Amino acid sequence: MPNRQKRLIFSMSGLLGFLCALTAAVCTGLPLWLSGTVLCRTGAELVNATAQELDKFLGEVSYGLFHGQLVKRCGLGGRPSRFSFFADLLPAIPAGLHVTIIFFCVVVVLFSSVASGFFFFNAFGRPYETLHGPLGLYLWSFICCVCSCLVMILFASEVKLRRLSDRIANFNEVTSVYETYSEHYDCCFWLFFLIFLLHGLNVLLIRLSGVQFPFQETKESEMNGGAADLMY
Known about the structure:
By secondary structure, this protein is an alpha+beta fold. Helices cover 58% and strands 15% of the residues.
C-alpha cells in the first residue's frame, strides 16, 4: 500500500484510539451506568397494592462506578438521597469485584492512549522496535478490546448476579424491604461497548494497511521453508 494511504489509515486509527481513551476516562467517572426502579415490597404487600397503585411504591435508582442517587417511595412521597460507593456503601457491595471493574477501566484509558500514540508514531515516524511497530499496534488494540469487554461482563455480573441495586436500596434500611423492579444499562455502559467495537475496527484498519496478523508471517515462512526442504 502507498505510504500516503498507510499514513492516512494509521492517523485515523490514532484518532479513534484517542477518542476511545477520552470516552473511557469520562465514562468511568459519570454516574450513568445503570438506571432502574426499586419497589417497596413491604408497603405494597401491606396495602395489597394493585398494578395501578404500584407507582406510589416505585422509586428510582441510578449510579455509576463511584456514586449515584436513589429515590425511595413507600406510599408517602419520595425520599431522595445521594450515595458514594466507597464512602457510604463499602460494607454492602462486593468491593473486590467493583475495584476490579475500575481497574480495567483505567487499563482501557491507559492502553487506548498508548495505542493512539503508537498509531501516530507509525504514521509519521520510523518504528525501530517490535512493540513500536505493527506487532505493538495489534497488541495494544487487542488489550483494549479484551479489557473493555471485561468491564462490561464484570459490571453486568455485579448488577445481575450480585444484585447491586438491591444492596444499594436496602443498605441501612430498617423498616422496609426494597427489591429491583426494573433496570437497564445506561449510556456509559453502551459507550464502553462502542469502545470495544472501535478497537476491533482499529485491528481491521491495521490489516487493511497491509500489515500481516501476528505470527502469520512466521507460519508462511515455515511453510515455505518446508517446501524448500522437500525440493532438496
